[in-house]
Amino acid sequence: MQYKACVFGNPVEQSKSPFIHETFAKQCDVDFEYVKQSPEIKDFLNSASEFLSAAQVVGANITVPFKEQAFSFVDELSLQAKRAGAVNTFIKKDGKVIGENTDGIGLVQDLRRNGVILKDARVLLIGAGGAAKGALPALIDADVGAVQIYNRTENRAKDLVEYAESYCAEKLSLYDGVSKYDLIINATTLSLSAKLPALPDSIYANSPVCYDMVYLNKPTVFMTHAESLGCLCIDGLGMLVGQAAESFYYWFDKRPDVEPVLRLLRSAL
User: Fold this and answer.
1) Is the pLDDT of residue 183 over 90?
2) Domains 3-101+238-268 and 105-235 belong to one CATH topology
3) N or C: which end of the chain has fewer CB within 10 A?
4) Residue 130's pLDDT is what?
5) Residue 56 three-state SS
6) Is the pTM of this model over 0.90?
7) Which of 4, 26, 67, 82 is catalytic?
8) pLDDT band at 50, cuts 50/70/90?
9) Is 67 a catalytic residue?
10) Which of the following CATH numbers is that of domain 3-101+238-268: 2.102.10.10, 3.40.50.10860, 3.40.50.720, 3.10.290.10?
11) Which residues are annotated as a binding site for NADP(+)?
12) Which UniProt keywords apply (predicted)?
């Protein structure tokens, strides 16, 4: 039987998920079709139900703006999805739809792939939306030392700190303007509009590794600025491939090699 999955998003035309998953399938010798669906927000739940009802479907990926709806749609939630408050992967198993979140795992794997030491690291997480919420559980699981949250709207940062308190314990706090960092993660989409987070250059004083979840065909403005201040910078392309690989593993119990896929995507940017 040919297996099938899709990515739900709106817009979704630019998604690289079909290429990534079809390349994984070739690596792992799986007969697999991966498509895109872009329903209107009000139609997402019906579209998801219809798609998942087909016998050959193993699951789906979910991107903006459907992750919160996906959270309430599933029969069961994984621990990561519960802690993130959002779902980016549907997994069909034993007649149920399980909600998973692989974003944070993809981030942590990419950081480690780039040689970043996470144990006891002091982290500044910029942003308090879905991307930040997805990253936080995996960072805590990676045994970072502390995470501070900065958001342009401080109340949203406070909400995230409160939401995550149950599993972050004493490691999580608001940005204080004085701490030094080993790792700064830009979990906003500001780089897509060539804007910098409204933070002082003092955050780069310790020459932290700087990670931008956005990826472009050139270094983002956040990366360029941080590099000018002596920081090592990484973009989010590896996170994209890593979170997809984790989804593929949940569907087929086969772990694909991300390196050749990442090289192909990088050369095509």
Assistant:
1) yes
2) yes
3) N
4) 85
5) coil
6) yes
7) 67
8) very high
9) yes
10) 3.40.50.10860
11) 127-131, 151-156, 213, 236
12) Amino-acid biosynthesis, Aromatic amino acid biosynthesis, NADP, Oxidoreductase
